[in-house]
Amino acid sequence: MLSTPSWHFNRRRPCDRMRDSTNDAFFTAESLENLSEALVREAIQNSIDAADMTSGVRDVRIRIRLVPQATGNAKSMLHSLFAGAEKHFESGIQSTNSNSVFKTVPGYFVFEDLGTTGLDGDVEAWRLEDSTKNAFWSFFRAEGRSSKTGDSLGRWGIGKQVFPTASLVNTVFGLTVRTDEPNRVLMGSAVIRSRTIENDDYDPDGWFGLQENTDRPVTPVIEESFLNQFVQAFQL
Known about the structure:
It is a single chain. By secondary structure, the chain is α+β, with helices and mostly antiparallel strands. It has one domain (6-233). It has 6 helices and 7 strands. The strands form 2 sheets. Strands 1, 4, 5, 6 and 7 form a 5-stranded antiparallel sheet that branches. Helix 2 (72-82) crosses helix 6 (224-233). The chain is globular, with a radius of gyration of 17 Å. It starts with 5 loop residues before the first strand and ends with a helix.
């Protein structure tokens, strides 16, 4: 039986390279006016590439919302989503104010697209040979790689990094309604600094979801009651 949805981080083995992601440098280049510009542009580009073309018409609608300070159900949901993982984020956030992040009233940014296929693909796939045309794999399990081909606007697997880069806790939660089964899934992803907690070293990557054991990939949440709480809390 799978565990309760939570954050999962991999311990660094003695044979592993000490690695911290440098993808945020892509968004600090002089060619970008500011991070908010990159956030909107890259996110919309990904949505256009994922347009559902079954009707022969590309009709994608975007909804963007910024809530500087969460209240009510959203505030409670944010605290519960990070419960038990505070030490990892406080140790792994690059900001000099990282220790105070969880002591303030949290805010959140919502980006929704409608008229897309969602993040299709096998949610348990992890091998490169299983990644072809697997948008879920590309978004949550790959860095610097993409399953996009042909005339797609973005094919470098970099644009998605704008979400955690824009986050104070370097985190993104993705709730996607797909044409594949399971139809609706939720997973979280974070890229924070390598760190040592209670004498254990950890890699930068973290995933919010379910995990049978440490040798298996983290899988998304599919429980309807949890997904409904998420939807209601953030008014999706």
